[in-house]
């Protein structure tokens, strides 16, 4: 990748380390407040987060530590970057973008902030798209434009065992709050204009996941797209879901299985699964 342009994102992108390393994407960690302790999420193992959730210890997500973006930009500048593209979780889900903008105002080099309009691999694929263009020698304007387009065009479909954690975090829309709490009824969600919205509810987990697969196949039909399955503490189920999708969407280019960041995991709860279809 050209050292003259750096790509920065935040950890809600949930990018597998192998991809972030391959494309030299700088990832700034969000923070979690577990009880009274504030920690960079990079230092929160999944088992610790699960124990805290089981014990009903209050957990909140917060933007990166003060000046974390500034020092990421400084480090990129020190390594030769003359411009930075910084791609982030939508401001409707986190104030991380505000922190990035404040850091950009103090940066030694120009920083272009891109709103992914979501989080997770919608954000991850947007950052990857920018990094790919930069790596191939493309210009900053094109990389920025493509990242913005990928964020706008992507669709994420989310399965959760319960809405409890999303409600607790204040992450669901008024419409989603109307969903009942019957254990057999499984809500299927999406992100619209930065808000978590319902798109269906199905009785039973297997039927819900089958519905999610059908919807993803319809979204990918006739389009060039990247595909991701994201999970929280459900790797086996995520792998099975990915296999189902690959059989029905064989033309997908990048196919990614990843655990969501701890910050997202705290919001969706254990057992959550999501599919991102990102046209290119």
Mean pLDDT: 93
What is the structural class?
A: alpha/beta
The major pleated sheet works out as: 6 strands, mixed
Poorly predicted runs are none
DSSP strand (E) fraction?
Answer: 25-35%
Overall morphology: globular
Order of helices and strands: EHEEEHEHEHEHHEHHEEHEHEHE
Give the total of beta strands.
13
Number of helices: 11
The Cα radius of gyration reads 18 Å
Named CATH architecture of the largest domain: 3-Layer(aba) Sandwich
Taking the alpha carbons of the first and last residues, their distance comes to: 20 Å
- The percent of residues in helical segments reads 40-55%
CATH C-level name of the largest domain: Alpha Beta
State the domain count: 2
**Strands side by side in the biggest sheet:** 10-9-8-13-11-12
Indicate the CATH topology of the largest domain: Rossmann fold
Organism: Lentzea flaviverrucosa
GO molecular function: lipid binding
Pfam family, one: DegV
Keywords: Lipid-binding
């Amino acid at each position: 990748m050209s050292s003259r342009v750096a790509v920065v994102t935040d950890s809600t992108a949930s990018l597998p380390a192998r991809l972030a390393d391959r494309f030299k994407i700088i990832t700034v960690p969000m923070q979690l407040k577990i009880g009274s302790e504030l920690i960079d999420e990079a230092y929160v193992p999944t088992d610790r987060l699960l124990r805290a959730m089981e014990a009903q210890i209050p957990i909140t997500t917060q933007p990166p530590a003060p000046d974390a973006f500034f020092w990421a930009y400084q480090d990129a500048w020190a390594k030769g970057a003359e411009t930075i593209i910084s791609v982030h979780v939508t401001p409707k889900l986190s104030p991380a973008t505000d922190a990035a903008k404040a850091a950009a105002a103090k940066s030694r080099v120009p920083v272009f902030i891109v709103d992914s309009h979501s989080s997770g691999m919608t954000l991850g694929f947007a950052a990857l798209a920018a990094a790919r263009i930069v790596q191939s020698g493309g210009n900053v304007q094109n990389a920025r434009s493509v990242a913005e387009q990928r964020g706008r065009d992507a669709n994420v479909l989310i399965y959760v065992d319960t809405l409890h954690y999303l409600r607790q975090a204040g992450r669901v829309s008024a419409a989603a709050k109307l969903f009942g709490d019957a254990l057999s009824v499984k809500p299927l969600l999406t992100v619209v204009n930065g808000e978590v919205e319902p798109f269906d509810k199905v009785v039973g987990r297997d039927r819900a996941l089958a519905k999610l697969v059908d919807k993803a196949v319809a979204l990918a039909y006739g389009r060039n797209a990247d595909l991701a399955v994201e999970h929280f503490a459900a790797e086996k189920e995520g792998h099975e879901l990915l296999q189902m999708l690959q059989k029905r969407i064989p033309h997908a280019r990048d196919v990614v299985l990843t655990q969501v960041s701890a910050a997202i995991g705290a919001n969706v709860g254990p057992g959550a699964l999501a599919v991102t279809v990102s046209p290119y």
